[in-house]
Amino acid sequence: MFKSLRQLTLFSLVLLFIAFVMSISQSTMTTAYPILMHSFNVSASTVQWLTTGFMVTMTLVMPLSPWLLDNIPLRYLLNGIVIVFLIGTAWAIVTPNFTGIIIGRLLEGIAVGALFPTFQSVILESTPKDRRGPSMGVVGLVMGSALAVGPIVSGIILQWGSWRQLFGFFFIVLIVLVLLIQKQIKNVHTLKPYRFDWLSAVMLLGFGGILYSISVIPTQGINAQWWLMMVISTIILGIFVARQLKLTTPFLNLSVFHYHGYLPAMILTGLSYSGLITATVLMPLFYQKVFHFNPLASGLLMVPAAIFLSLLNPKAGYLLQKIGLKRLVRIGTSMMVLGYGLLALMGQANFWVGLVAAMLLEGGNAFIMMPAVTAANNALPEDLVAHGTAILTTLRQVIGAGSVVVASILITSFNQNVSYGTALSQTSAWFIFVPVLGLLLSTQIKTEK
């Protein structure tokens, strides 16, 4: 891991630190749901908007990243992203009502949505192709471990502090970071200014509509209103795609799909992210609902998996150069199949089985997601890396959201006839199909490293 860190420039390390702090915020709110529901007297479906709204705004902004990179000097762009996040966090800290927290989370989602594809594109562009594997392994360490660490951090803070202190933690850490690293920010991306296409930007609402429709299924179900939203969003997104294919300088260059190897690698990143985010949903439920641990203990029980993921991500980057993506994917998907298989037995087992299962699921992700991101972008010319990364991160987010919704629906459905523990186990059994699909998809990967 430390050898991989040394290969990154100081500026890349700065980006990683900022991304890590902002990434943690993505998965912290679920632990605070019961406290916020009690403090503001809101329902579970209302408090869920803290996550749903964050995800929708994040997904809407991700496709804007190629234009932002090409038109705004990196120093101003990065500082602007951090300022938006700080404003949102400060708003959430001082607000007297729940609506203010939602507004704060929407601003945080905008910032994170702009940062994720931006910092990955910058690191890819500033790293030679033969060194991208180890570098993106470190990126995977940051992205994956931050998602796993989020509930741990929030559990510790909420054990002794308030939800306002949770937001305050991120505000203080991030403002110290951004003040300390100003001298390290370099404009490493070459600007290629072009006109902002407002019509394309508005049409990105199609992405938001689809993600929103997916997210509300567990609470609102599928009805006529849902179908209307989904159909309209799909039509808008279809018009967006048609427009990009006609524009001389497209807002989002879809020609990336013409390059052999990009599409299967893109899908693999989504499938691996599905395994990671589903593990962060299922494991706390197992620990709290089945084995009756408190939120703090539940969060701490996620630490071994987070450490395992952190150790494996850089190693996976090096292995990508040595054995190629196809073999890595087969290792990763086999680990995930075994992990879900253990969870399928979890209702009749003890929490130690859960520790091993979570390690296998998150470790399997390390062998798939960032190696696939690296392989997908290596298939592209340099001028398309930002576009390829934007598409990867956006679709990965949609697949991840869909996975959480499917897990919620399955748990609720099974729990009507069996115990909660058995419902969680049966849900895990169904999710075995996700890594199996990834294993089948690995046959479409070129054998070259």
UniProtKB/TrEMBL annotation:
<feature type="transmembrane region" description="Helical">
    <location>
        <begin position="293"/>
        <end position="312"/>
    </location>
</feature>
<feature type="transmembrane region" description="Helical">
    <location>
        <begin position="423"/>
        <end position="441"/>
    </location>
</feature>
<feature type="transmembrane region" description="Helical">
    <location>
        <begin position="100"/>
        <end position="124"/>
    </location>
</feature>
<protein>
    <submittedName>
        <fullName>Transport protein HsrA</fullName>
    </submittedName>
</protein>
<feature type="transmembrane region" description="Helical">
    <location>
        <begin position="136"/>
        <end position="160"/>
    </location>
</feature>
<feature type="transmembrane region" description="Helical">
    <location>
        <begin position="48"/>
        <end position="69"/>
    </location>
</feature>
<feature type="transmembrane region" description="Helical">
    <location>
        <begin position="384"/>
        <end position="411"/>
    </location>
</feature>
<feature type="transmembrane region" description="Helical">
    <location>
        <begin position="197"/>
        <end position="218"/>
    </location>
</feature>
<keyword id="KW-0812">Transmembrane</keyword>
<dbReference type="Pfam" id="PF07690">
    <property type="entry name" value="MFS_1"/>
</dbReference>
<keyword id="KW-0813">Transport</keyword>
<feature type="transmembrane region" description="Helical">
    <location>
        <begin position="224"/>
        <end position="242"/>
    </location>
</feature>
<dbReference type="InterPro" id="IPR036259">
    <property type="entry name" value="MFS_trans_sf"/>
</dbReference>
<keyword id="KW-0472">Membrane</keyword>
<feature type="domain" description="Major facilitator superfamily (MFS) profile">
    <location>
        <begin position="11"/>
        <end position="449"/>
    </location>
</feature>
<dbReference type="InterPro" id="IPR011701">
    <property type="entry name" value="MFS"/>
</dbReference>
<feature type="transmembrane region" description="Helical">
    <location>
        <begin position="76"/>
        <end position="94"/>
    </location>
</feature>
<feature type="transmembrane region" description="Helical">
    <location>
        <begin position="166"/>
        <end position="185"/>
    </location>
</feature>
<feature type="transmembrane region" description="Helical">
    <location>
        <begin position="351"/>
        <end position="372"/>
    </location>
</feature>
<dbReference type="InterPro" id="IPR020846">
    <property type="entry name" value="MFS_dom"/>
</dbReference>
<feature type="transmembrane region" description="Helical">
    <location>
        <begin position="328"/>
        <end position="345"/>
    </location>
</feature>
<keyword id="KW-1133">Transmembrane helix</keyword>
<feature type="transmembrane region" description="Helical">
    <location>
        <begin position="262"/>
        <end position="287"/>
    </location>
</feature>
